[in-house]
Design goal:
By secondary structure, the protein is α/β, with parallel strands linked by helices. It has helices at residues 6-22, 26-38, 42-61, 95-107, 156-159, 173-184, 202-212, 219-225, 230-244, 330-334, 353-365, 407-414, 427-435, 448-452, and strands at residues 2-5, 71-79, 82-85, 136-142, 147-154, 163-167, 192-199, 258-266, 273-280, 286-290, 321-324, 341-350, 377-379, 418-421, 439-442, 455-462, 471-485. Helix 13 links the parallel strand 14 and strand 15.
């Protein structure tokens, strides 16, 4: 009987999570390069370039491609003839315990700390677990003595856009999928891959959709040879029809919204057609491997030639209007137009969900705020902790719509001038921005390490107990953004605005 040590499994999972945090799968980089080469829309082309530069720099620095380093999913295919042993004293830990130990090690690694996003007691105190545990573990028992593992770090932006429907057998799956994309908005940071689960039971369909994402991109080859069966026909139909919507990179309009469409199917009841949809974002992170015969698995870095032709920084021709945040006023903001690119320098504040709740409570009680927002710009971000030499760790934008219910009051009562985040805003937020002559700027989701290189200084100025959700003051130099909503209410995003409360 083959034996594998629990300690080797733990080390392998830890190594895989560290590698996935900073290095994209090679097929994903190649697909991004191809999308950038054929993109015809300037805003989307600029976003794709930022994603590629970020991918190159993150892999080189071994720092996360995105600040949301995800919920860890571990898929184990365990042979019935394999025995897992413990090298130390005491009983052999469960696979769940092994996975949790690996997550804790990977997310607290001093050389590359990852952001802990998992909270316990979701209906109560919602306390962060501190080390991103527990892992989400799925185990399949199989013949033989092998152990195959897939480790994925799934960010909140992708899972938040999950869709499920119970269709009739005569309904078109492609029609349903295409109908979902505009309402999903850009919070999943396109371009990415769509996973579809078809058939089975409701919970099986959702599992199939997620597992479908963990296979190499091969859409170019499929398009060249043509479909061989109904599954491949569905993949092609959805790919072509979704890209024809023109949503594009980051939802700013463009030729490529999805890089591939993956489908897994299972037998189902004759009267039912369960369908689930899950996207993989521009921070695609997964590793699949077989446990070696001896010792832990290792994950060597890809050949640097993978990023050949990608610059080490945004080139001067990427351009953008320079903006001094320290002297910014309403008159300058009024001159911006939706779709315009800017390069921000100076001081800005940060704040996301928890900080906004506290600010709102203070305003409700008529108490002073701990920071003066008048004339300031507020960035929706929860950064990764820095390592030596960094002002702050990877610090990409979070989904702005979560802050929409707070925005009208902040604009009306604090003199806040502009906000920065990712994806579209609700009708309520758009109206408030126009009413107060403010602006909303979009940074590229999935380009967090690139953004962090524009941050030259960072300090906590309020709510330090909130950790990554504290209010920071960043000093930035040439931070690239796009005007997503201008002071007149003009909107750059090519996706449906969210209706109030529908987020």
């Amino acid at each position: 009987m083959r034996c594998v040590y629990a300690e080797d499994i733990e080390a392998s999972l830890c190594n895989a999570l560290q590698a996935a945090s900073h290095t994209h799968p090679p097929d994903f980089v190649q697909a991004l390069k191809a999308a950038h080469a054929c993109e015809t829309q300037p805003a989307a082309r600029q976003a794709l370039l930022q994603l590629l530069v970020n991918s190159k720099l993150s892999a080189r620095a071994r720092r996360p491609v995105c600040q949301d380093t995800g919920v860890v999913h571990v898929y184990a295919r365990l042979g019935m003839d394999l025995r897992i042993r413990h090298a130390g004293a005491g009983p052999t830990p469960s696979l769940q315990a092994i996975a949790d130990r690996a997550v804790a090690r990977a997310y607290t690694e001093p050389a590359n700390p990852l952001r802990a996003s998992m909270i316990s007691d979701p209906l109560g105190l919602r306390r962060n677990t501190g080390d991103n545990t527990p892992a989400v573990l799925h185990v399949e028992l199989a013949e033989g003595d092998g152990l195959s593992l897939t480790v994925a770090a799934k960010g909140g932006g992708g899972d938040a856009k999950a869709r499920y429907a119970m269709l009739r057998p005569s309904d078109s799956v492609a029609d349903w999928v295409v109908s979902q994309l505009p309402g999903m908005g850009a919070g999943w940071c396109p371009p990415g891959v769509l996973g579809l689960g078809v058939g089975g039971t409701p919970e099986q369909a959702m599992m199939l959709a997620k597992r479908a994402l963990f296979s190499p991109i091969d859409m170019p080859a499929l398009r060249r040879r043509g479909p061989a069966d109904a599954t491949e026909r569905l993949r092609l139909q959805v790919y072509e029809r979704v890209n024809a919507l023109g949503i594009g990179a980051q939802g700013l309009g463009g030729d490529t919204t999805v890089l591939d469409v993956k489908v897994l199917a299972a037998p189902s009841h004759a009267a039912l057609l369960p369908v689930a949809l899950l996207p993989n974002c521009a921070a695609t992170r997964y590793v699949s491997f077989d446990m070696p015969a001896d010792g832990p698995a290792s994950f060597p870095a890809p050949d640097p030639a993978l990023w050949h032709g990608i610059p080490d920084a945004l080139p001067p021709e990427a351009g953008g209007t320079p903006v001094n945040l320290d002297t910014l006023d309403g008159r300058e903001v009024a001159g911006w137009r939706a779709g315009q690119t800017l390069r921000l320098s100076g001081k800005l504040l940060t704040g996301r969900d928890a900080a906004h709740q506290r600010l709102a409570a203070l305003l409700e009680r008529g108490e002073p705020l701990p920071v003066d927002l008048r004339g300031r710009t507020l960035y929706y971000v929860g950064p990764v902790d820095p390592v030596a030499g960094e002002a702050v760790g990877p610090a990409g934008p979070t989904t702005s719509a979560r802050m929409d219910k707070f925005l009208p009051r902040l604009l009306a009562e604090t003199g806040l001038l502009a906000t920065i985040g990712k994806a579209e805003r609700s009708e309520q937020a758009v109206a408030a921005i126009a009413r107060h002559g403010a602006a909303y700027l979009s940074a590229v989701g999935g380009a967090a390490y690139l953004v962090s290189r524009a941050i030259t200084a960072a300090r906590v100025v309020a709510f330090a107990d909130l950790g990554m959700e504290a209010i920071y003051e960043f000093e930035v130099r040439d931070m690239p953004v796009t005007v997503a909503i201008d002071a007149r209410g003009g909107v750059a995003h090519k996706v449906f605005r969210l209706h109030d409360g529908a987020r």
